[in-house]
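Me: I'm a chemist; would you kindly supply a protein sequence with its C-alpha cells?

Assistant:
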Amino acid sequence: MSELSDLERASRLTALRNLIDLMRPAVQADGGDLVLVRADVESGVVEVQLQGACSSCAISSDTLQGGVTRILTDRLKWVTEVLGGVDESIDLVESASLGVGGYVPRYREL
C-alpha cells in the first residue's frame, strides 16, 4: 500500500466532510445531528456519532448502518469501514423532546 500525498489526504477529508454535511439536514430534521468523530483517510476507517434526538430513537442503528454507512462506502470508494455510535450523554427525556423521532412508515391496504 503506497502512502498518500498530503494533497490526496486533504482531498479525501474534504470530500468526507462535504458528504457528511450533505447528510446532516436529514438527521437534523428529526432533532438529531451527525458528527464526524475521526477519519483515517489512509486506512479508510471513519467514525461518526449520532447526537440529539437520535439518543432516544429506536432506529438510530438503522440510520447508521442503512443510511450513513451505505452512503459513505458507496460514494467514497476509499472508505472501508464506518464505526458509529449514539451520544448517550444526553438524558433520554431531553433527547425525545428534541425531535419527532424516527420515520415510521404507514401502510395502507390496497
